[in-house]
User: Which sequence fits this backbone?
C-alpha cells in the first residue's frame, strides 16, 4: 500500500529501526483511517489484480488456511474466504482491525476469517498456513519496508509447501523526460530569491545578519526540491529509453538482507531525441504460485507508466538538474543503488550514476546523484 | 510558534504525555527545518512585537542574564544580547541549535549567547536568570503545550525578582460568520456521496458489502470536516458579536494545572444581522514586565482578526453546522471549555455551548458541540 504518510524521519538505532511508539506515530497510524483505506480500495488496477489473482486461482484457496498480512479493511481476507478458504487469519496492527472484524461479520464470514489486532512480528497463530497473501507494496515497491513483516510472517507461519500472494516482485527504472525539472528548479530559485530578500530585510530592519545560514538553507531547499523523489503519474511518452529491472524478488525465498541494500548496472538506449530529465521508477508484482503448485492463471499487477491504468502508487521521479539533451541511439550506462535511511528503516536513499555516450561517440562527464525517498 | 505539524495523535500515557521519541517525531522535528524557522521569522507582526518589547525596554536586559526557551534560530537570544544582556542561555531541543550557534557567532555575540541543545526539562544552567524570554505560543495560544516548558524553566531558573517575556497572555473567543461552513458541509456531503458510490461498486463489482462501514466512515469524515478547528485568516467583518476573554494567564504565576483544563462562560451580543456560523478564537500576549519592575513601554502582540496585521497564527474557526440566523441584539450565552487530548498532551479538545435568545425573547434550542484542535 502506498502512503505518503508524513515523511518525517525519526531518530533510530544504528540500523534505522525506530522504537514502536515512533514507528506507530510515523507509519502505522495513517492506516487506521477509513479514508485512507478507501483510497486504496478505490484503486481499480490494484483491486482487479488481487481479485483476479484469487478468484482465477481458487485451487490455491479452497479448503486451505490463509494468512493476510496487514489486512487493513479485511478485503483480501474476505476474498480468500469467498474463494473457499477453510480458515483465514487476518492480522492488522492498527485499530482498523475493528472495522475489519465488523466487515467480516457483515459479510457472514466470521466463521472463516479471524481478525487479529497486533504486529506480525508478535502475533501467535494456532497453526501454519498454506497461503500468505498481502498487499505490502509501497511507493517504488519497498518504501515503508512492509515486506520485512511479510518475510517474518513467511518464516514463522508458512508451511514448507506454502504459497506467497504475490509470488514475485520487480523494481523497474527508465530514463525519462519531465516538466518537473523546470518546475522544481523554478521553485528552488524562487525559494532562494525569497531567502535573499529575507536576509536583507532581517539585517536592515532587525539588525541580525542571517547570511551565514544561506548555505544550510540552500542545502535544505535543494534536498527538498531536487534531491527528493517525487510522486508522479508518468505518461508512457515520457519514458525516453529502454527500461530495466534493477531488482527481482522471489517472495518465497527473499531475506531482509536481500532487500535492505542492493545495486544494479544496466544499459539503456535512448529511443527518441529529447531531454534526459532524470529517471522514473516503478514496480510490478506477479501471482504465479510456486513451481510445485503453480497458478492456473498468472496475474500481473504493474505500476508502469500508463494512460488508462494508473494506480495510486504512481511512479517515482528522480530529477537530474540540469537536464541533458540526448538523441536516438544515445547510450546510457546507468548504475542504481538503494539502501535504507540510517534514521528510519522505512525510508530509502537511492543513488544513480549515469555515463552518457552520444551516438557520435562523445562521452559526457559522468553524472552521479543521490536521492531521498521520503 | 504556530505549526500545523502533522496533527496525528500518538498513543500516550493516561495524561496524554507521550514518550520522548514519539514527541520528537510528532512535534519537535518540524522546528529543525530552516524553512519553518524562516516562516516564523517572516511574520512581521510577531517580529516587531518581540523586537520592540526588547529594545524599548532595554533596562530589563542591560547587564542582566537571560534564558531564551526554545531559541530556534536564536533570534530572541541575539536581540537580548544586542539590548545589552550580560549573558544569554539559548536552549533549543532540535538540531536547529547548531544553526543558532552559527548565527550567534556570525553576529559576534558568542561571548554573550550560549546555545544549549537539549530539552528545557533537562538542561542544567550555571545560574538563575533575570529574564525568561520565549516565543511559545501555538495556534489558539495553547496548542503544542509549549508553555509547560516555559513554566518548567521559570520554576527552575528564574530569580525571585525575575521577569517573563511575555508577561501575560489571553485567549479570546467571538461569534463569527464564515463561508467555511458551507464549504465544509459540501466537502462532507461530497465525501459521503463518493463513499456511497464506492459501497455500491464494491458490492456489485467485488462482491463485498461495505455498507456496515458507512456509519464509522461518516463519523470519521464528520470529525475531519466539521468537528476539527480550522486555521483561517478572519476578516474583522466576520466577527458578528462582542468578543470575550476566556482565559487569562499571568506568565509569572501560572501553573500547568491552570492551563491544562479550564472553562468560561460569557455573554455576547450580536452586533449585526447575519448567520452565526460558529466561533473564532485567537490570542494576545503582553510585555508588561512585573509590578516591581515594569516595562517602560508596554508592548502588545495580538492575533485578533485584522486586515493588515495578520500573523502566521491566523485564528481558529469552530464551525456550527447548520448555521443560525441571528439579528442585531440577539443575545448569546456562550460556555467554553478546553482540555488536553487524552492521546496527546500537545493537542486540545474544546467544547462550546451556546444559548441563543433573539431580541423578541424567543429562545432557540441550546447548542452544544465539541471540537478537536489537531
Assistant:
Amino acid at each position: 500500500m502506498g502512503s505518503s504518510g508524513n515523511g518525517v524521519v525519526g531518530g533510530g538505532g544504528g540500523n534505522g529501526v525506530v522504537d514502536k511508539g515512533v514507528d506507530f506515530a510515523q507509519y502505522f497510524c495513517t492506516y487506521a483511517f477509513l479514508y485512507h483505506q478507501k483510497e486504496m480500495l478505490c484503486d481499480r488496477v490494484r483491486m482487479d489484480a488481487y481479485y483476479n489473482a484469487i478468484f482465477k486461482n481458487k485451487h490455491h484457496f479452497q479448503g486451505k488456511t490463509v494468512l493476510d498480512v496487514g489486512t487493513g479493511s479485511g478485503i483480501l481476507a474476505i476474498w480468500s474466504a469467498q474463494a473457499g478458504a477453510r480458515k483465514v487469519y487476518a492480522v492488522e496492527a492498527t485499530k482498523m482491525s475493528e472495522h475489519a472484524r465488523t466487515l467480516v461479520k457483515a459479510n457472514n464470514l466470521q466463521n472463516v476469517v479471524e481478525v487479529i489486532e497486533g504486529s506480525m512480528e508478535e502475533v501467535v497463530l494456532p497453526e501454519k498456513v498454506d497461503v500468505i497473501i498481502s498487499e505490502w507494496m509501497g511507493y517504488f515497491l519497498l518504501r515503508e519496508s512492509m515486506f520485512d513483516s511479510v518475510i517474518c510472517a513467511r518464516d514463522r507461519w508458512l508451511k514448507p509447501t506454502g504459497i506467497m500472494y504475490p509470488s514475485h516482485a520487480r523494481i523497474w527504472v527508465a530514463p525519462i523526460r519531465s516538466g518537473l525539472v523546470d518546475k522544481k528548479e523554478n521553485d528552488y530559485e524562487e525559494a532562494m530569491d525569497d531567502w535573499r530578500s529575507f536576509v536583507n530585510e532581517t539585517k536592515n530592519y532587525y539588525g541580525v545578519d542571517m547570511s551565514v545560514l544561506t548555505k544550510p538553507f540552500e542545502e535544505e531547499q535543494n534536498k527538498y526540491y531536487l534531491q527528493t523523489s517525487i510522486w508522479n503519474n508518468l505518461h508512457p511518452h515520457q519514458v525516453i529509453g529502454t527500461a530495466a529491472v534493477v531488482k527481482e524478488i522471489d517472495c518465497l525465498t527473499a531475506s531482509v538482507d536481500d532487500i535492505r541494500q542492493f545495486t544494479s548496472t544496466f544499459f539503456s538506449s535512448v529511443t527518441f531525441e529529447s531531454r534526459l530529465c532524470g529517471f522514473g521508477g516503478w514496480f510490478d508484482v506477479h501471482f504465479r504460485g510456486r513451481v510445485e503448485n503453480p497458478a492456473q492463471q498468472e496475474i500481473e499487477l504493474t505500476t508502469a507508466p500508463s494512460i488508462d491504468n494508473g494506480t495510486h502508487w504512481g511512479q517515482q521521479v528522480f530529477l537530474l538538474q540540469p537536464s541533458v539533451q540526448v538523441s536516438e541511439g544515445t547510450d546510457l550506462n546507468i548504475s542504481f543503488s538503494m539502501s535504507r535511511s540510517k534514521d528510519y528503516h522505512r525510508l530509502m536513499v537511492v543513488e544513480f550514476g549515469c555515463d552518457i555516450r552520444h551516438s557520435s561517440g562523445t562521452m559526457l562527464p559522468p553524472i552521479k546523484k543521490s536521492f531521498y525517498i521520503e
Remarks:
- Chain A has a mean pLDDT of 94.
- Chain A touches chain B through 50 residues (CB under 8 Å).
- Residues 180-226 of chain A form one domain.
